[in-house]
Amino acid sequence: MATVDKETVLSRHRLALDATAIGQAMIEGDMEEARFRAYLLRSQASELGLEDVEKAALMVVVMLPPDERLPKRGIGRAMLRLCDTLDVRH
Fold it and tell me: What is the pLDDT of residues 19-58, one digit of tens each?
């Protein structure tokens, strides 16, 4: 059985809460909040050295352009990829 670093688990858990907040904001139609959370998550992932999460968060950012009211087609896939990268087994 693989050993999992407690700090990594906690960091990914905090990021998962932010990912949940992105999804909730989109459901509520608050694209500004969704964009803010996506940028924040990407920044935090970068600071933690979680490159896979950072790249996935970038795709979410790209799908939430600041000049549009609605996310681009493919946002669901981008969010799924982001959530998959937050799995503690990575």
Answer: 999 999 999 999 999 999 999 999 999 999 999 999 999 9
Three state DSSP letters for the chain = CCCCCHHHHHHHHHHHHHHHHHHHHHHCCCHHHHHHHHHHHHHHHHHCCCHHHHHHHHHHHHHCCCCCCCCCCCHHHHHHHHHHHCCCCC
Residues 6+ apart with CB under 8 A from 73: none
What is the rounded distance in angstroms from the CA atom of residue 30 to the CA atom of residue 24? 9
The model carries a pTM of: 0.83
